[in-house]
């Protein structure tokens, strides 16, 4: 690598660092404000809110990576343009393509870092944040992998083997105690559907009643049960697809499909990780015309335009993802479409500039 390439790469790294130092604390602060609303509920304290926010920072960085790439590269190349260094380089024979390749090389290292972070760091931290918050709010307790979802209130213990989606669960166990803590009934249901509010319909049910030394067992095709959980509480007991690592998502999607279960949300989450990488590269490409294509614009104007583009891309990506789930579109196409469209747009824009 020549001196110029090293210098350009260093400037891009500096720009990415500045963008990260601005965006990550900003979104972290917004997360903290959201968590502070729950302080005082259960055993949730201010320190828990700060801990939860800190554990989510790796995930937030991954989510912000495309916008860090966009703003960081605009900052880096914009500073060089303001200082007339880009003009000097081009006068010395350094082509815009060579300058662009320096940005893309740094972007490749960024993607590698994000991949490692998404596989080994962010999922564990995010799941710990969710679990710790739920326990402090007295909503659930995660006892370990493959053990299902456990929760309780004053007189009931509930275990859910697996949530198929927001409205159906399988492998349900309900243990009911009296006011003195003595076991009254044990209920097992093969699956359950949430009718409305806290009303569940249990299917293939076996109930065992304990009365002194006597145990009575009754079976039924379906039984309605008034749960101590509402739909919002159920969501706090499940791991969101986003909180899983790429490998976990891959095996979970394969399991869901092998057993004939609905797995679009998990498949989309898996493909969106690849889509995020494509979008990051697209943002790096789009940031280059902001500098070379607007020579009269100052760095501030470039950053404002880049920010508007970043917001537009984020909204477009969210709309496409939600529409894909609603319309049952192909998860790969839904996840990759925004990034591929941006790459095509960047290619056309770069040809016009260069």
Output mean pLDDT: 87
What gap, in angstroms, lies between the N and C termini? 23 Å
State the major sheet. Answer: 6 strands, antiparallel
What portion of residues belong to β-strands? Answer: 15-25%
How many separate domains?
A: 2
Task: Tell me the radius of gyration.
Answer: 26 Å
**Total number of helices:** 10
| Low confidence ranges | none
Oligomer: single chain
Strand adjacency order, main sheet: 1-2-3-4-5-6
Decide which structural class fits the backbone. alpha+beta
How many DSSP E strands?
6
Primary descriptors:
single chain; alpha+beta; six-stranded antiparallel beta sheet; 10 helices; 62% helix; cell membrane; Lipopolysaccharide export system permease protein
Question: What would you say this structure looks like, in words?
Answer:
The protein is of the alpha+beta class and 354 residues long. It folds into 2 domains: 236 residues, no CATH class; 93 residues, no CATH class. 62% of the residues lie in helices and 18% in strands. Helix 2 crosses helix 9. A hairpin with a 2-residue loop joins strand 2 and strand 3. It has a 6-stranded antiparallel β-sheet with strand order 1-2-3-4-5-6, with no helix packed on it. The mean pLDDT is 87. The protein contains 10 helices and 6 strands. This is Lipopolysaccharide export system permease protein. It comes from Nitrosospira briensis. Pfam families: LptF_LptG. One of its GO terms (cellular component) is ATP-binding cassette (ABC) transporter complex. InterPro entries: LptG (IPR030923), LptG/LptF_permease (IPR005495).
